[in-house]
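All the exercises in this workshop are built on plain-text protein records. There is nothing in a record beyond a sequence line and a structure line. A learned vocabulary of local backbone shapes supplies the integers on the structure line. The question running through the whole workshop is how a given chain folds. Here is such a record, shown just as it appears in the course material:

***
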Amino acid sequence: MKLIFRSYLASLREREELDAILPDLLSELGYIVYSRPQRGTTQAGVDIAAVGADEDGERKLFLFTVKRGDLTRESWNDGTPQSLRASLDTILDNYVQHRVPKRYQDLKIVVCMVFGGDMQEQVRSDVEGYARRYTTDRVSFAEWNGDKLAGMLMQGILREEIMPKALRRHFQKAVAMVDDPEIAFQHYSRLVRELCQSATNDKERVRSARQIYIALWVLFVWARDVDNVEAPYRASEFALLHLWDLLRPYVGKTRNAAGKAITAVLGDAIQLHLAISEEFLYRKILPHVSVPHGISMAICGGTSADVNLRLFDLLGRIAMAGLWIHWISQQDPDAERKIRLHAQTRALVDAGFQLINNNPALFLPLQDEHSIEVALFLLLVGAADGNLHDAHAWLQGMTQRLALTLRTHGRYPCVFSEYRDLIAHPRCRTDEYRQEATAGSTLIPLMAAFLSYFDDGECLVQLVDLKAKELQHCTLQLWIPDESSEAGLYIGSDEHGIALCDLPLTIGGQDQIDTLDAAFKQEGAFDKLSAIATGYWPIVLAACHHHRWPVPPQFWRRFVAPLAAE
């Protein structure tokens, strides 16, 4: 296990990786962390500052300067401000002299040189000579290398009383099987569920949150090394949802220390989820969306069903990344960062449309439940003030293909979820089989709502005609949360929510909107969801994406409002 941690630490990058997990590790070990890494601020060489006890039990002030990998001659002193020696000089000349908080000025100071690997022998004499020269009665130096950090992870995260051996096996297997994403995810999800179920008080909830986060970091770094981040992508979304479930009891309790600690971990986990999404999308997918049929060919599926399923999965991931970035931009007070983040969301919208236009399979899903991905991407278009013309053209193309495939018994969207049923669809080209395969639909009401928003009477006429002839038996339905959804939505329970069935489908589209608005007034649980009430609305969308719930129509009803105005 220690070798796993050492390899993980050595692979971490300096910024937003090694310095991201260290504060939580220190907190888990009992240190009081009062300064964390920040962007855009001068930190005088100190990446992290904390107060804690040394090996003799004496309370001291620890100042950490973090470097990645092994400490070499270049990273020790290459003449740049980023070298370790330059950082130490700045700490001694600036931070120690002028920036130590008054409440800690009587404490002795330990300057900790942190790096994920080892100190190379050719530089050790220089470092030790520097430490001897500047050590005083008040200031001393310490080396925190990968071996020490791995030992601290073992001590703080995997102590027997904190993580029993049964849970350690899930963690080890998840890391060992990162090149088999399904198995790795299964073990990580079991670890997360059991950590959450065993947390019965404030202290245990905070500890479980930190363990989930650090275990996810380890999984991501190992997966990145084997160039397969599928498992950490799914795991990070799963982790976000369970971290929110840990946080739910503290919603509204602004002074609760445990709530604040879990909120901090959740914020870090959101950033990690976006880092994993970026590793997946920007390195593997987005550079190729402009190539006609490029992504479709790269999927290398055995059947056309594989291509269709994977393409809609990718579109959903693009949409979720964009919606998270849009949410972050809403929280950011810095005007320049807002502009930069908004440009990033617009770029993801453009990439999504390139993916659609260059991979025609995206003009009609194979599964009706891919209304989830369709809704998510349309929400992103609205949130980013994207190209509504392209969105309308996409829905027009989807309507035409839907009409053609239904009338010719082609590969129309079906209600099946088993893979063997999907690859065989349509198993029979008969009216009886079509009735079975199209027993219900969430896709058609979604399409009708947006087509009415675009005032597309022609396409609405096609949908109404399909419903009257080929789909007389089909139940048009949507899903909304109810009072039980707060407890079940985030962890994936099946027994919550309300199905709105037999929705009207008319050429004007207003009857459906009126029906939805009436249902919203009668069932107001959506606005009471903790994630909605606190402004963390992407958590609800992440739950829909991960656990395969239809996106509540309150979201896309607000698209017409629109969502971006909230």
